[in-house]
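Bumping my old thread because nobody answered last time. Still need a sequence for this structure:
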């Protein structure tokens, strides 16, 4: 049986990718480029774009507005006045038909796709429908690094799919609707931020239909939360976060917690004079077996958690054990909103971590 259209993610990196349902994408506030082709005549190539071959603005039955049709073996890019900033977001709407060509999008050191072959130099995501191939392939330029088969695109044909990309210095994240499909903290180097592109993949025989994009928005954004946390540690001497969490059944750190600890570990490696204390505090009362009392804190459990953080940092980054001190606190002082949910005004339940510069 022929496989329905599936995503294959092709991403340049020496590191893996992490799949998670996510709503942590925050669009940049300072718009660099925005286009929905409303001012371009149907049948023309849009005025603010470049192409390696061709392309045209069209109207699609059942979909509002105008769309840029990109055929197979054709690449397009916006005409940007400057290269992408190190903190930015890229968003666009995508429509894929049942008989569309593969979809290829990402960033590239090639400023204008008319002047070079973008397929050989890019950080990108590819969507394809090829029987026997993995759904996800992690790739460096034209070299496959690894592959995955656990992300299906059934149900995404003939409807609008919103694509979001977040770039924060070396970090590269990709979201498909509300799903974060790529999060690589050490992927980018400056040369790849010259431009954003979308391309139609090639195949023999050529697919009868192209792909369609619209509502493109590129904006400068803020540095990601992990970098800001380290910046605050150096400037203010301490930080508090509730982004380090533990599985309630196993008391092991969640995978979502590791990137923050990795950023902290990298800071410790970069500055041999930096020593820290990690304090833990349970925001919600920990209920011990056989008791219904409130306000009880399982100090042994808290101690285990901070010791696991220390062990992770020491082992992964080969740090001397005396550079990290651990402790337990019932009164973590913070000027951040970690203690309170600003939307509801209620205290956030869970585990708080305080990192203090010694």
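Sorry it took so long. Here it is:
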């Amino acid at each position: 049986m022929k496989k329905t259209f599936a995503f294959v993610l092709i991403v340049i990196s020496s590191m893996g990718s992490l799949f998670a349902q996510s709503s942590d994408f925050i669009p940049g506030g300072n718009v660099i480029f925005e286009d929905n082709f409303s001012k371009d005549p149907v049948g023309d190539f849009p005025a603010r774009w470049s192409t390696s071959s061709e392309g045209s603005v069209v109207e699609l039955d059942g979909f509002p507005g105008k769309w840029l049709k990109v055929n197979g073996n054709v690449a397009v890019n916006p005409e940007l006045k400057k290269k992408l900033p190190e903190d930015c977001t890229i968003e666009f709407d995508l429509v894929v038909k049942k008989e569309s060509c593969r979809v290829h999008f990402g960033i590239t050191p090639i400023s204008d796709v008319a002047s070079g072959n973008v397929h050989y130099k890019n950080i990108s995501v590819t969507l394809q429908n090829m029987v026997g191939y993995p759904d996800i392939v992690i790739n460096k330029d034209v070299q496959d690094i690894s592959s995955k088969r656990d992300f299906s695109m059934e149900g995404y044909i003939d409807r609008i799919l919103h694509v979001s990309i977040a770039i924060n210095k070396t970090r590269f994240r990709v979201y498909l609707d509300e799903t974060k499909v790529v999060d690589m903290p050490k992927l980018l180097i400056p040369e790849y931020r010259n431009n954003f592109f979308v391309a139609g993949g090639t195949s023999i025989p050529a697919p009868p239909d192209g792909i369609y994009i619209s509502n493109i928005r590129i904006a400068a954004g803020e540095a990601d939360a992990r970098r800001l946390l380290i910046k605050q540690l150096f400037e203010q001497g301490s930080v508090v976060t509730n982004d380090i969490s533990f599985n309630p059944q196993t008391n092991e750190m969640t995978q979502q917690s590791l990137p923050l600890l990795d950023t902290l570990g990298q800071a410790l490696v970069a500055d041999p004079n930096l020593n820290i204390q990690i304090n833990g505090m349970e925001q919600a009362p920990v209920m011990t077996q056989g008791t219904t009392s409130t306000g009880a804190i399982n100090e042994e459990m808290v101690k285990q958690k901070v010791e696991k953080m220390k062990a992770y940092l020491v082992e992964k980054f080969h740090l001397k054990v005396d550079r990290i001190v651990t402790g337990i606190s019932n009164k973590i002082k913070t000027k951040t909103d970690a203690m309170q949910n600003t939307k509801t005004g209620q205290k956030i339940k869970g585990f708080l971590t305080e990192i203090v510069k010694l």
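The chain has two domains: 6-220, 225-357. Let me know if any region looks off to you.
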